[in-house]
Amino acid sequence: MRAEESHFADLVQGRAQQFQVPLYQRTYSWTEKQLAQLWGDILDQSELVGAGVAASTHFLGSVVLAPSPQTDATFPRWLVVDGQQRLTTLSLALAAIRDHIADAQPDEAERIDEEYLVNKRKKGADHFRLLPTQADRPQYAAHVRAVRPQQVSGDRIAGAYQYFRRKLAELADADTPATAREALRIEQAITSRLSLVTITAERGDNVHRIFESLNNTGLKLSQADLLRNYLFMRLPTRGEQVYESHWLPLQNSLSNNELEQLMWLQLVLDGDDRVRRQDLYTAQQQRFERGTTSDSPAEADIESYIVELHRRSAHYRRIIRPEEEPDSRLRAYLKRLQDWQAVVTYPALMVVLDSLSRGDVDIDEAARAMAYIESFLVRRTICRVPTANLNRIFQAVPAQLPQGQGVAEGLHQLLSAENRAWPDDEELRDKIRSAPFYQYGRPNQRRLVLQRLEESYEHPEPVDFASAQLTIEHVMPQTPGEEWLRVLDEDTAEGESAEDLHKRLQHTLGNLTLTGINSELSNHPFERKQGLLDGSHLEMNRRIAATERWGAKEILARADDLADRAVHMWPAPLTNAGRAERSRDWQLAHQVLAALPHGTWTSYGDLAAFIGSGAQAVGSHLAKVENVANAYRVLNADGKIADGFRWAGADGGDPRARLSADGIHFTYAGAADPAQRLTVDDLSLLLDKAEGELAEEASPLEPEQAGKETRAARFLRQLAADDTPSTVSAVRELLYRWEKLGGWIGYGAGEVTTSAFLMLGRAGAPGRGIWPLTLYPGGGRGGVAEVVFAHMANREPFTDRARRLELLNRLNGMEGVSIPEGKLELRPSFALSALEDKANRTRLYETLTWFRERWEERDTA
User: Distance (Å, rounded) from C-alpha 734 to C-alpha 727?
Assistant: First the structure.
C-alpha cells in the first residue's frame, strides 16, 4: 500500500482509465449541505487562482483505490473503496462547468470533457472515467453525455448537477451568466487546488480495514483546544505564570466557542484576510513558525500573543455583550448590531474599539464609524443586495483600511468602493417605494428598520422597544376584502388590476408599521384600523390614522416620507468612489429562476413582485437576455405561454414540450396546472437560508391569565369566524387526536391571525422539535393546513427527500388534496374544510401516526 498527495487532475488525467464504484457501496448521497460547503471551498481557491496567489491548497479528503479484478495493462480499472462521494461530486461540477460554457467556448468545453470525464475512444460503460454504482449510472451517464435526462424524483446525482449549474448562474452579472473566464478559473480550482490523499492498495491488501481506520474518528477537538495545547507546549518556563495572569481570566470570561472566534479575529486583525475559522489552528501555527529555523517559536513570541489576545478580549466582550460598553452612544450602536445578528461586522468593530482604546480616535469618531457600518447593512437590506459577500468585505477591513486617516473616514472610503454595493440615496429612495421589503432579510432586521424609523420622529415619550411586544403589521392587509380592492381600483394604471396593484405594494415599506395589536387590526377596513392606530403610542401609526383613505397614493407618499428619514438617518456612501451597477434586481431574478424545482412554474407578475419591478419589464428582460435558466417557465398569470414568447438566443424548440419535459402538467384548456405555480411568497422561500425554526410569532407555551383570552381560544374563535361548524369540529378533533399521539400544540402569538403548530419534541423548546403541519384561520378565505416541508428538510429523519416525498404522497391520498412534487422544498397548504370528510380524517390520522413513528426511529435508523 502506498499513499501520496495529489489533485483531481493528477488522478484522472492522462491515459484512458476508469474508477469503478463497487456495487456494495451506497449510492451517491451528498445533500445541499455538503455541496454548499464544498462550493465555498472551491470559490475560496478560485479567488486565489484569480489573484495569482500560490497559497497552500485546500485538503478535501482521502481516496482509497484498489485494483479492479477487470483491470488490464491497456486499460487500468480501479475500485473506489473510499471517496466515491468526492469523486462523483467533482465530476458533476466539471460537467456543469462544461455545459455552462458550451455555447461561448465549445473548444474549452470539449477539453474538460476529454480530460476529466470520458475516455474518448472507448464505448459503452468504458466511455466514462468514473463509473458510479448501477443505481446512479443512468443519471450520471446522461449528465456526462450532456443529454437531457429523464428526471427522477429526489435523484441526488441530478440534484448535485443542478446545484452547480445554479451556483454558476448566481455568479452572473446583470445581463449575462458568469463569464467563461470565471468558470474556467473555478475549473482550475477544482482540478488543481483541492488536495487529495490517494491511498493505493496492492492486491491482497485488506482495503476494508483501511476504510475502517480512515473513518474511525474519535472526539473531535475544537480549533481553540488545538491552539491552546500548541501554545502551552511551547511555554516550558513561562507557562504557569502566563496561564494564571492572562489565559485563565480570558478563558473564564469567554465560552470555548467565543474564545475560538476571538482567536480567529486576532488573525484577521493581524492582516490575514483570507483565513477561515476552521483553518485557525493551522494558520496561527504557520504564523508562529514563519521566519524561524525550527518548529518552536520563542517563548516571548507566544507570551506576547497571549497578552495581546487577553487585551483584545475586552473589545470583543463589548461587541458580544453591549451592556459592558460604558458610552451610551456606542452601546446603542453595538446593541442594534447585536440585534441585527451582524456577526460579519466583528472585524471592523474590533478595529474601531482597538483604535479607541489606543487613543487614536475619540468617542465621536468611533460613533461615526459605527454609523457607517450600520448604514452599510441597512441600506443593502432595504435595497435587497445579496449578503453572500459580506463576510469577505468585513474580513478584509483590517488589511485594507486606508492609512493616514481616521478610522471613520477610512471605513467610509473603504465601504464606498464600487464593488462594495453600498446603495446611494437615489437607489434607497427607489427601493423604499418599490421593493417588497417584508420578504427580504431576517424578521429581526425588518423590525429593527421600522424601529429606527419610528425613533426618527423623536417622540418626547419614546417607546421602550425592549419591553414592548411589537410585530410588523400590513396596513393594507395581505388578504384584502372587496372594500380594499375598490380603493385600490381607483389608483390602478392602464392594464393593471387592483389585484396586481395589491401584489406590487402590499410588502413595501410604505405599507408596513409596528403594532402590538395585530390580532385586533386583522383584515378590517381602513376606517376600523384608523381608530385603533390613532390610539397608538407610536408616532408613525398616528400619522397613518390621520389620512382619509389608504390606497396606492397614500402608500407611496408615506414611502417618500420614510425615505427622507432613512436618507437622513443612515449616511450615504461617498460619491467619488463610484457605485455598483444597479443590476442586482435582474441578478436576483436569474438566481431564483435557476432555483425553480422540477415541476413548477411562475408568472411574470409573481417574479416582478419578487424583485420589485413590473410584469412588462420582466417580460422584456427575459425576451432579450440569453442563457437565463428556466426563463421559459415564466408564464402569464393564467398559466398560458405569452402570445409574443420567443427564445432569447438559440431556438429552444416548442416551449410547451420543454415545459412538459420539466414536469409541468396542462389542463384541457391548455393552461399550466395552477397547483404547480410558485407565488411570490414561494419564490422568496426558495432563496431563504433560514434554519427551519418556528415562525417568529410562535410561542407554544403561555401562562393562563385570569380574564384574558388564551391563544388556543383565540385560534378557535378566529377559525369559527371564517369556517363552517363542521370544519371547526374536525379541527378540534385533529388537535385532540394529535395530543393522544403524544404530540403537543403550540399557538402563535397572533400576527394578524394566530396559528396552531402540531409539535413533537420537548415542549417549550420548539427549535429542538419538529412539526408536520401548521394550521391557520382563513382571514376571509377559509382555514388552511400548511405542510412545512421547508422546515422538515432541516430535521432528521426528514432531511431525506424520499421521506418527505412519502409524506406528500400520503397526504395526497386525501380527497381534494393535490400537492405537486415541485413544492417539496416549500410550504404548500390544503383547505381545512377537507377534514369534514371522515375518510380524509382517517387518512390524515394514519399519516400523522406514520410521521411520529418515523421521527421516533430517527436515532436508530
Answer: 10
Decide: 523 and 479 in contact? Cβ < 8 Å: yes
The three-class DSSP label of residue 40 is helix
Peptide bond into 797 cis (omega under 30): yes
Q: What DSSP string runs through 386-401? A: --TTHHHHHHTHHHHS
CA 610 to CA 148: how far, in whole Å? 29
The answer to whether the CB of 718 falls within 8 A of the CB of 780 is no
pTM, entire model = 0.64
Distance CA 23, CA 458 (A): 71
- Report the amino acid identity of residue 291: G
> If you ran DSSP here, which 8-state letter would residue 14 be given?
S
* Beta-bridge mates of residue 79: 20, 66
Determine the 3-state secondary structure of 295 from DSSP: coil
In tens, the pLDDT along 797-823 reads 888 888 999 999 999 999 999 999 989
Name the range with the highest mean pLDDT among 20-24, 561-565, 576-580, 646-650.
561-565
| Cross-strand partners of 59 | 195
| pLDDT tens-digit readout, 718-765 | 888 888 999 999 999 999 999 998 899 988 765 456 789 999 886 554
3-state DSSP assignment of residue 471: strand
Identify the three-state secondary structure at position 844: helix
Phi, psi of 858 (to 5 degrees): -60, -35
Pairing of strands 194-200, 58-67: parallel
Cβ neighbour number for residue 101 with a 10 Å cutoff: 24
Angle at 417 between CA 415 and CA 419, to 5 degrees: 105
- Maximum pairwise Cα distance, the chain: 88
Per DSSP, helices labelled H in 573-709 are 584-594, 604-611, 615-624, 655-661, 680-686
- Of the chain, the end-to-end C-alpha distance in Å amounts to 34
How far is residue 658 from each of residues 251, 263, 652, 765, measured CA to CA in Å? 61, 53, 8, 46
Q: Is there a contact between 411 and 366 (Cβ–Cβ < 8 Å)? A: no
Average pLDDT, the chain: 84
